[in-house]
Batch of 4 targets.
Target 1
Amino acid sequence: MDARRRPRRPYAGRRVLLGVTGGIAAYKAIQLARDLTLAGAETEVVLTAGAQDFVRPLCFEALTGRAAHSSLYTPGQPLTHIRLARDADAVIVAPATANFLARTAAGMADDLLTAILLATAAPVLVCPAMNDRMYAHAQTQANLAHLGALGYHIAGPAVGPLAWGEGEGPGRLLDPMEILEHTARLLEAPSLSGRRVVVTAGPTREAIDPVRYIGNRSSGRMGYGLAASAWRRGAEVVLISGPSSLPAPTGAQLQRVETAEQMCIAVRDALPAADVLLMAAAVADYRPSEPAGSKVKKQPGQAPVLQLESTPDVLTATLDARRPGTLVVGFALETDDVLANARRKLTGKQLDLMVVNDATEPGAGFEVSTNRVTLLAPHREDETLPLLSKDEVADQILDRVEVLLG
Ligand code: CTP
């Protein structure tokens, strides 16, 4: 099974109540219900009367394997709103229409969904979606501000093409995958709240000429997984990324860089405010000493020789920018003397934790979605984890980081 489609933390076994209100974006709630269910959440769906003009309860029932609810009073099932409100670990309203926002801001309880919102103690995420002028209206903005002040979490809307030839604007429902990430942040304990976590990810590229470079096979997956996991735990996350085709992780401040030199500058700038540095990037160790200003042309019968020079070692070159107490984690990919090399780097680069994997093992290393790593820390026993998805490895690493942070 695709690792993204396997029941996983923090959704597995958690009860998520998905409220769907009557806007055209309700069709995306079908995908969201499916994604939540595949992630392992026990997903209960509540549709408003308006939602049922767009999507049928049966759709959700088939995908979640549970009855979809819409009525405040069902004969033989008293107090449905209280049961659903009490059972939920998180409530998501997606899409949330202007009318729903107004009713909720006014404290109405005239249908099942609004009654649940008054009765639940679970965190509530509201994902607005509507026409851009309706969204910009002062009344809608006042309703959203009021809901925010009441403790509701608000995510979106996204900017993009709106329904029915209305052009582009803020009003689109967030992508279901992004809503899933926001849901995860509600379900996860906020164990890194108030912490600033800086993550580096991906390869670097060192120019040979304007069209060619020296690079490596790093995809960025490990670093992006770490950024996502830290954000879910409540951290403020800065992700300094070399070139990667992965989508920006929800919630992280993404800074793109290309070369080892640029990564070094970005890490130096970020370090003074960092509680944690997770140095997952595969930084190039060498670069052409004199990159050509224009494309190097082929010379028949003559192979060019590339003269290389060292790039800065980011971890060593920024040692002076670390504040006392900043926790630093390094990553290494080795093929020989794996543990001895890793321990040498742990000490030499003054790390609190080293994550190492053996590139010769199947399922570990670059360009795969899994990894088998060993964790090394000063004065601690080495710990080898089983083969896990890179997202699961990220969670395990952050569990150790939390322990080391105390
Ligand atoms: N690293 C760094 N700057 C570099 C190279 C690596 O900060 N120029 C960091 C990596 O991000 C990683 C750690 O150092 O967290 C170990 O990287 P690795 O490439 O394994 O170590 P090197 O010191 O480059 O040793 P070698 O390539 O010889 O194994």
Note: The first helix runs from residue 26 to 38.
Target 2
Amino acid sequence: MTQKKVLTIAGTDVSGGAGYSADIKTFEDHDLYGFCALTTIVSMDPSTWAHRVHHVPLEILDEQIETALSLKPDTIKTGMLPNEEVISRARKAIEKSGADYFVFDPVMVCKGDDTVLNPGVVDSMQKELLPITTIVTPNLVEAGNLAGMNTPKTIDEVKEAAKKIHEYGPKYVVVKGGTGLEGDNALDIFYDGEKFYGLYADKLEKAYNHGAGCTFAAAVASNFTNGLEPLEAVKEAKAFVTSAIKHGSQMNEHVGVVRHNAYNKVDKVNVQAKEL
Ligand code: PXL
């Protein structure tokens, strides 16, 4: 196979914006071959949009991982990992795989449903996954949880959280501040263990952004797999997801989803990277 291969260990989101479908669409758009070991099935109550999360039985997850590893992924990305058992299976799979990169998207909350999935998973994410991570991609809430702090609200607090997360062992940390930090820009912060860089895009007024977090992490995974340098990989991933948000569409009264292929099919937005 001439294309490189990326395995995502993630859940489905029936709306198609987030979860493994976001990953596969994003890998495809980066000319990579994507495949999935499914952890959870998520559906939404059409009247309240409350997320209903069903776990795939562990023996079925084990079977999928066995198959997936026989396909020899170059990179592994994780999405929704609902409990300690699934996290430890993901760890074993990553260690066994010989993959070049592990991109850890520590999914704890879904947009449109603020309940933290399972606070009990933070400890095993810190101890089992962060030490073997190439790059971890938390949003502000997830960064606070992984760092053992309150949700960071300022650039200095994000830097503090990134440093604390880095101490658990990942090579790189990128915190998705998005529109949640001060200033006129949608700002994400990248930390390579020595220096901090701000990734700046315009704040978008009409943000159809369901799936943005998964899409960003999948684009980071794609860019590492395609050999980009780490800072370039996160900068390009932010441009990819910002285009996807800009050209997203409203699906029903509850949800608007990103357009995963907008960067290559519609327009390439501009992102600036500056040392902070
Ligand atoms: O956006 C986080 C997320 C990840 N994975 C799955 C989801 C969601 C949010 O809905 O359903 C499967």
Note: The first strand starts at residue 5 and ends at 13.
Target 3
Amino acid sequence: MAKQEDLFKNVVSHAKEYGFIFPSSEIYDGLSAVYDYAQNGVELKKNIRDYWWKSMVQMHENIVGIDAAIFMHPTTWKASGHVDAFNDPLIDNKDSKKRYRADVLIEDYAEKLNQKAQKEIEKAKGRFGDAFDEAQFVATNERVKGYLDQKNAILQRMAKGLDSGDLADVKALIEELEIACPESGSRNWTEVRQFNLMFGTKLGASADSAMDLYLRPETAQGIFVNFLNVQKTGRMKIPFGIAQTGKAFRNEIVARQFIFRMREFEQMEMQFFVKPGEEMKYYEYWKETRLKWHLSLGLGKENYRFHDHEKLAHYANAAADIEFNFPFGFKELEGIHSRTDFDLKAHEQFSGKKLQYFDTEENRNYVPYVVETSVGLDRMFLAVFSKALQEETLEDGSTRTVLRLPSVLAPTKAAILPLVKKDGLPEVAKEIVEELKWDFNVAYDEKDAVGRRYRRQDALGTPFCITVDHQTLEDKTVTIRHRDSMEQQRVAISELRTIIANEVSMRNWLMKM
Ligand code: GAP
């Protein structure tokens, strides 16, 4: 089995074994692409959400948050374009009976061409050393140019087919590229069809009077319909932002990648309202700012890249993804979209209410333009968790599994361990728990030998283990063990709070932005 597949399998099994993520309603054999966050997962998820909220809302005086309802008036989704255009092009393989997104099959093919080009570039880099001029090499090397031109031509043709609704040409492209079903290897495809991703439900008790509703497929619309309420009651001046985190629902066609693509998931979105004509400036600003936020977590610069969209969503005039190197390759983690005035104008039209801003400097009303940042909380979880999970061989030849989570996100910040379960050590350890729990999520563990307890906390991502031993009774010191280096220091109990705070404080982590 490929190494990447192994890694991904480990991620899924570790998440379950250590109480991070369980399949939903598992006793009934689970529900496809729906997952529950367990006792440790819920803490990690909450910490990621808090890290985002603090950097977006608390650290920007011109950004405020809201929490809109999941149910919205159904006309919202007509106005936003989701009823008519929130579709994925699907294709079935007649032999394996597996269903795929036609665009994903083509994009995966194009990505292989891209990887071939990147391989050539890497080889040339090695050959030419410091003298290597990548831009010149890409422009002049026939083979690399060939791969990249072919890739671009494929993506452009696909975008044209999807935009114009020419699904027959999308199928023709799949056939011309001889794309086979990854499951069966067969090229026996159905036609490409559009499939709306929204889940429907009903509001009201009787069948006659019930109103058809949708579960929101994005949190953004809750922000748009509240734009004027927030602007007026918050006396917000453009440019300003409204942020929100919350559940979104999509009936995904292909949902086979654990929490990467779920049918119920959580988004962290921010809509930034700007003067028309200034959107590109802020689009660039938010691209850069959001990437810095990701980099502040220290998972490695090489694991992120931008991908500019070839095919723009119905509301956007520019869009880019921040892609992350997941265990199954680079995939979208966050989207940054310049959404123009599409949404506010559409809501004006459908509601008959004005959604305009009065600019006192220019003495005129206008519908603001919007730059959106939208990151999936579950995808952030997977990104952080999959990079953090490592198998290490130690100097003595033994191995350990360690979850090197950024300590600011770790579910538990410190575990307090009495060396033995007697001689008054548990009592002192519990006193330390009582003291530290005011500031940090801490755990107490007295079961098993201390070495095994260290390993268990390593696997849970706990940055510190604090061991109470007999010396503690004499001089009020403990050993503090660092998860990543496994180094141990002797420190006074009175110093613990400061040591932990320095390491896990959001302030220190966000300052790296
Ligand atoms: N409001 C814009 C919007 O919803 P999107 O690119 O469709 O844009 C934004 O979604 C982010 O939401 C994605 O970058 C991804 O992180 C997350 N996301 C989208 N669909 C998802 C799914 N089915 N499961 C988990 N996360 C998803």
Note: The domain at 412-510 is CATH 3.40.50.800 (Rossmann fold).
Target 4
Amino acid sequence: MDDQTPKSHDEAARDILRGNDRGGFTVPTAGLYPYQWNWDSVFAAMGFATFDRDRAWRELETLFEAQWPDGMVPHIVFRADEPSYFPGPSVWQADKGPLPSSGISQPPVAATVIARLAAQDPDRAARLFDPLDRWHRWWHAARDPDGTGVIAITHPWESGRDNLPDWDRPGDAVDVSGVGTYTRRDTSLVDTDQRPKKKDYDRYLALVQFGVDRGWDYARIAAETPFFVADPGITAILLRAERDLRALAEAFGRDPVPIDARIARLEAGHERLWNPDAGAYVSRNMRTGERAPWATSASFLPLFAGVTARKAELLGTLDRFSRSVRYLVPSFDPDSELFDPLRYWRGPAWAIVNWMIADGLRQCGEDAWAARIRSDTAKLIGESGFAEYFGPLGAEPCGGGSFSWTAAIWLAWGLGTINEGTV
Ligand code: GLC
């Protein structure tokens, strides 16, 4: 190609994935996130699958190489020594797995993406069946030991939506007196106004220390942690993943009965997260029973999980969101006084969440809403590039640039063909 020819967005997206490839795993973006992140990798695989199928499977396989003997798949795999990143492996002291890693997990989107790609390469999908099954069982045992049907997080980072206002009040119970002094790296790379505040960061580090002090024993953590918050995001993503795992079980002649039991439990559990006043599924502090009073982007994910009992109310809430922002879907209720349009998970829109929400809407026959979210995502990226996330009022590109999962969603969702009007 002539150097003067402008690159298409498709080509730019492929270049980002290739450029962030560190040999079998992809970093979310160079600089800010120099390791392998769990759900970032899974979405990257979805993007790679559009032009390099082998590379897509490698991404998924390398993630599961880090699986702990207890089934946990860590949220960060520290594959290289990057002293520029904080908190790194020496802070986590989580040495229970085959590779250095963090001690918590992240949203289990892998089964959904593997089921999507399985027809291309059934043998490689089949080899990942047992690791997936073990990971899903870990979620139930470690994060819902009482079988309530809702899945809790033990650290805000486990939700993948790090500084959501939902974690503020439950976080008040975290003792930060032992945190000491430390130097953050994220605020030297990205505008401070777009990152979590120091108070949040102290809690993040105190909760890491809490896990270290308990040898990352999940039963002890679940029994003793002050921070155990049921998350509609993780609960819905796991339910969807269980359904996709069940489809894989059918395809590979494996026993679906234990998966059916887990599906039934999660389906029933969803009602515990319904907040009629918010018209939304919300998080719930499992220590106090308190439910969050507002909707977030995760409130819509039960539709992605096939839970449609509250569809009408959820559409009402989505409609309300759409009147307050220009681009869907803000990560946090835009009518709340805590809405902060450029600060990370307190307002901005994220392409990966949009993809999941739109997939759910399409599944339950809401094609017009799905198309609106898809088209908003195409506009955000089209206008502002492959940023980590975007301002929902003015499409501002926020956080890191040349971001793997934003590029991956562009490709996997075929956003370059948006004018064709398909979802
Ligand atoms: C931030 C996000 C998290 C993501 C990570 C790497 O921590 O909140 O969801 O996985 O960055 O992109």
Note: The mean pLDDT is 96.
